[in-house]
Amino acid sequence: MSQSQVTFRAATVPDEYMPPLWHQLPQLARRVPGRPWTVAFATVPMILLHCPYPTPGGHDTPGGIMAVVGWPDGSSDGKPITGMAEALRPFLPCDERPLSPALDRVRFFYRGGLATIRSVSQPMAFCRLSGRWFVREGMHRAIALALLRVEQWEALDLDSIVQHAA
Q1: Which domain holds residue 86?
Q2: 28, 40, 121, 161 — which has fewest CB within 10 A?
């Protein structure tokens, strides 16, 4: 799959759409409450998405999401989301016993399907680095989407965010 299979859709969104937790992003550092934003939504084939973090889900699970499959801590950076999902697939049909908080979040979205993934108020976000697409927000949902064999997904393109002037 090539970058030419990525499509963009421009939009104006209200300030409330941008999660407060994103204040650490340079684009949102000088946020002016109440002003709308111009953004692009990128529809990216799942096969092009990668993990930008060494240990996704590590904030609530030692070793992160991939610890349950034996991946070493810190080894997920740059890995394809579809590859991570396939490594986790054998752990989905496990009984309801918790395996790890991070994997349980993936299982929650996987079992809830597209309706549950779409119900989350915080948008998913992708970005490009050196020509590769990365999931910057919504990693658990992205892995669940790959497990559901969704071929592509639309998310906020972080590189496109611009707040309107006064």
Answers
A1: 3-163
A2: 121
120-159 burial, b for 16+ CB within 10 Å, e for fewer? eeebbbbbbeeeebbbbbbbbbbbbbbbeeeebbebbbbe
Please state the pTM of the whole predicted model: 0.88
98/68 Cα distance (integer angstroms):
11
Provide φ and ψ at 145, rounded to 5°: -60, -45
CA distances from 70 to 64, 65, 67, 73, 78 (A): 10, 10, 5, 9, 17
| Domain count within the chain | 1
Nearest-angstrom CA–CA distance, 62 and 35 = 39
Looking at the DSSP assignment, which residues form a beta bridge with residue 153?
Answer: 44
